[in-house]
Design brief:
Helix content is 27%, strand content 21%. The protein has 520 residues and is of the alpha+beta class. β13 and β14 form a beta hairpin. The longest helix is centred in the first third of the chain and has 14 residues. The protein starts with 5 loop residues before the first strand and ends in a 21-residue tail after the last strand.
């Protein structure tokens, strides 16, 4: 089984029950945690390893997604929640979602027992839980006393480390400050990781971070956090310590070898990002750079990647992806590469290159912004994207020409969907098992036709029970009605095609969405 990592970040800022006040700072904390995890200088998670669930209304969908992802995770599983925590009459903790009712939290909220069940069922080697909510400390300490129910230690699971914001009420800034502020606990955690800890090891373990976090919050007169770690998971290396200064410890890769590698990589010639150039490459592992013309003499580095098997494979995937996007031209891109003999999963040469670029004040804009992601599956379709995300800056081209000319064709809906999946330069995912598409026939007219025309034909043939949703980075087709996705730019239902405005942070000015023409 291949080791993988998954972080599930849940943030709830809006509540329907007036007894649960809105917490605007929760969304800032949610995004701060994602930036922390995906910062290559800090935690170094990839974008496709981090799932954000923003303002879920009900508890059922987050619980299902959490269980499914936990079952598939064999490396590190991290669960983060920020929002209201509510205690039931029996003393159990519930994580409040948008529709949670304070009077019936066990019926309307995400009971922590369900989170615990996901942890128990996961084969992950390290399991981390960070709870930034009121009463979160109750999952650590069993309660006793005449007026309180006993609470079993919900984190008594081997290999689990739990970090909680407070035993009672967690602290948030005043409402007028929450538009830009994080919750107090997450802000302190973010600052400690971002600033590093002088005198601590090169990698910060959770056991290094917790004492500093507790001291910081206590000094500010804020509620103190709590922790529980089992086995050796509290020694899990959470982040690189940016405050660490080189000492006399043993280095597996001597600094002079790092410098030599980076010098040789920087000296490699550039090649056009084109099929002929890529096909000249041999099947060999290595690290590569993507360069983009930026108006000056020297193209800027926009992406650093590696391949453990063949450099040509990801380069072909990148070229295909870029060709199907707006506001980027593959003719402006080139690549350089260096073949390597090492075990790249051990050496991580792309991280060495990224770190050096950061030290030079250069940030490859396509790293950690979704460019290198593969299809993360149904669980991430409702993720809200930031304005820097590759899919937001370079949305898919629905006018992509599937053919310039050709005869009329009589196909089943399943045959056309399979053809689109194979031919489109972006992801087209559709429901097919037991969907009955083999019994639905349609005619493709002669001549040229685009992706937009193909989706219209499919939608009209399938009828109102189906919906094709074109998101900024992929297209979905499922038997569903009136489903809405934050990053959607167009919906196809029956004979209608409807434009949509994606819900993202700071949408670029040059990206406008309007109702599409009859054939774009």
């Amino acid at each position: 089984m291949t080791s993988n990592n998954t972080a599930v970040l849940i943030g709830v800022s809006q509540y329907r029950d007036p007894s649960l006040p809105d917490v605007p700072a929760a969304l800032n904390s949610l995004h701060a945690m994602r930036y922390l995890l995906t910062d290559p200088d800090l935690c170094g998670w990839s974008e496709d390893q981090v799932l954000m669930l923003e303002d879920p209304a009900g508890a059922a969908e987050p619980a299902l997604q959490l269980h499914r992802l936990a079952e598939e995770t064999t490396g590190t599983l991290l669960i983060y929640f920020v929002g209201h925590g509510v205690v039931t009459k029996t003393g159990a903790l519930c994580l409040a979602t948008g529709d949670t009712q304070l009077r019936y939290p066990d019926l309307t909220g995400l009971e922590y027992d369900k989170v615990r069940s996901a942890l128990l069922d996961s084969p992950a080697q390290a399991k981390l839980v960070i709870l930034d909510c009121c009463y979160s400390g109750r999952v650590i300490h069993a309660l006793s006393g005449a007026d309180e129910s006993h609470l079993a230690d919900a984190t008594d699971v081997r290999g689990v480390y739990t970090l909680t914001a407070a035993d009672q009420a967690a602290h948030v800034p005043p409402l007028e400050e929450q538009k830009t502020a994080c919750t107090s606990f997450t802000a302190a955690l973010r600052d400690i990781v971002r600033d590093g800890i002088p005198g601590a090891p090169p990698m910060l373990a959770l056991s290094d971070i917790y004492p500093q976090l507790k001291h910081t919050l206590k000094a500010r007169g804020l509620p103190e956090p709590n922790q529980r770690g089992t086995d050796t998971v509290e020694s899990y290396a959470f982040s690189r310590n940016v405050a660490h200064t080189s000492g006399t410890g043993f280095r597996l890769i001597p600094r002079e070898r790092e410098d030599l590698f980076l010098k040789i990589l920087a000296a490699q010639p550039r090649h056009d990002l084109s099929v002929p150039s890529i096909e000249k490459l041999e099947d060999w592992p290595g690290v590569y750079l993507l360069h983009q013309k930026s108006g000056g003499d020297n193209p800027k580095i926009v992406y650093v990647g590696r391949s453990d098997r063949s450099i040509a494979t990801p380069l072909k995937q990148h070229l295909r992806k870029i060709d199907g996007r707006h506001y980027v031209d593959s003719h402006d891109l080139s690549f350089s590469y260096l073949k390597l003999d090492d075990d790249l999963s051990y050496v991580a040469p792309e991280r060495l290159a990224l770190r050096r670029l950061h030290e030079q004040g250069l940030t490859p804009s396509w790293n950690h912004n979704g460019f290198g992601n593969r299809d993360a599956g149904r669980a991430r379709d409702r993720t809200r994207l930031d304005s820097h995300h590759f899919d937001v800056v370079h949305p898919i081209d629905l006018s992509w020409p599937l053919r310039a000319d050709g005869p009329a064709l009589d196909l089943t809906a399943n045959e056309l969907a399979a053809y689109l999946k194979a031919e489109l330069p972006y992801i087209f995912r559709f429901e097919h098992q037991g969907a009955g598409m083999d019994g639905i026939r349609l005619s493709v007219p002669e001549g040229s036709f685009s992706a937009d025309r193909a989706f219209r034909l499919l939608a009209a043939a399938l009828g109102d029970e189906w919906q094709i949703s074109a998101l900024m980075g992929r297209v979905l087709m499922y038997r569903e009605r009136d489903a809405r996705y934050p990053s959607a730019i167009r919906y196809y239902v029956g004979t209608e095609a409807m434009g949509a405005i994606p819900d993202v942070y700071e949408v670029p000015d040059d990206f406008e969405v309007a109702d599409p023409p009859d054939d774009c």
